[in-house]
Each structure stands twice: as structure tokens, then as C-alpha cells.
Amino acid sequence: MADEGEGRSEAKRPFPRFVADRPHLVEDAETALRLGKHVLLRGPTGSGKTRLAETLAERLELDMESVNCSVDLDMEALLGYRTLGLAEGKTVVEYVEGPVVRAMRLGRMLYIDELNVARPEVLPILHGALDHRRRLTNPLTADVIVAHPNFCVVAAMNEGYAGTSPLNEALLNRFVVFDVPYVQGDALAELIREATPSSTLSDAVVDRFVRLSADLVRASDVGELPPEAASIRALLDACDLCAHMPAMRAVRYAIAGKLSDPREQDLVMEIAASYFGDA
Length: 279
Prior knowledge:
Belongs to the CbbQ/NirQ/NorQ/GpvN family. The chain contains twelve helices and nine strands.
């Protein structure tokens, strides 16, 4: 039972900090937010955009409200909704604040993930909050919400993925844009060591995973593999598994297994075999 408890504890260890191989990325994004700008993080899936947003919130000492966009995102998911409640023994209609309203009122960071997945007709409601007015009229209550001085927005988007669409110019112009590519090289090695217990992966194994990542990114860039095959999140999952099983099995479960095309799965395993053999 003690071993099982230890295993559960290890599985819950916090995700590592954001590591960038582009100089000044974190500092420059933080500076933009401190100057009252809103930040758009643009990069492939699994490149660390959400972790970067969390890092920025930590550096600014702000609580974060999050919105995960989808084609089903509607006004209520952003601004809140009405529901029935009881007051003094009577049934009343109550308003429950949504993440946008809470963030504006309390001076929190609003993180909007997958911004370019939302239907274009939903997003214009944010325009007033994102420009110099820093206010919006809530159609659910008719209240005018004026943003707290600390209110800021960090949004994230993946370009070229199924279900995404280009942002309209009016919305895009309300952001300062930072590209977040896949971390590589020494920075990736640092991230792997931080994400995986130091006693489990040797420097040689870490180096092989770094070179495997570079090959997957190149294959994705030329269209041989989909972008998700090069996800750093998936690579870290493989490294974590590799601490407890052979590397090839870890790669199959964490990277190849997430692809739907068997040919793409085979290519990932072929590339991995060049570093890990049949292990």
C-alpha cells in the first residue's frame, strides 16, 4: 500500500514551469501586459501557450479566469447566465457572473484558449473590453461593466488546424502577438529534466528525446506528420512513461497512439527506432 501511495503522489507532481528557447519571450509578454496591452499567443498545439499564460499570471500576481473556446461557445459562457434561486422564501431570478465579467470586475487575467475556434459572431462582444474603452454593456443585465485597472487578457490560438478560422482584423488589432514555437535544443533538455524525476532519465536518454523531437518537428513542417505529432506535451508524456517502461512503448502510447492514421503512427515509430532501437 505504501508503494501505491507513493505512485499516486508522483503522478500528481506539478507541471514544470514554462521554458522558452526564444530570448526575452516571457519578459516581453509581461512588459506588454504591464503597459495595458492584451496578448495573443500564437503557436502549435502542445507548445506551452497555456503554461506561458499561467506563468504570466504568476509574475503579475493575478488570479486567472479561463474560457475554452469551441464552436458551441455562446454569450452566456462568456458573460454569465440567469437562474432561479430563493430569496426570503420566494423564487427569484438570479444572475451568475461569467468569467469575462468576473475578470473585469475583480481585476483578474482572462485567459481565452483556442480563440480562433469560436464562432466569429460571438467574439465582437469582447471588443469594448479589449480596446481603449475597457468596458462592455452586459445584455443579460443591462449593466455597464468598467474594467478594473489590473484587468488584462491573454488569448491563445493554433493556426491551420481543423475547425479553426482566421481572426477578423478588428479583433486581431486589439492584441499584441507573440509566437510560441515548439521549444527545442538545450531548452527542451532543461524542460525534460524538470518534468521528469532527475534520478530516472540519464543525460543520454534525454538527448535522444531532444533529437527525436527535432525530427518530429521537421516531419511536421514538411507535411509528413500532423502538427500534434510534434507536441511537446506529448513528448513530455513519453519521457514520463519512459521512466517506468521501455522508450519505444512510451513513444507508442504518448505520441504515436494519438494519431489516427496508421501510416503516421508507423512513421513516428520508425523515427523513434532510430534513437531507441527496439527498446
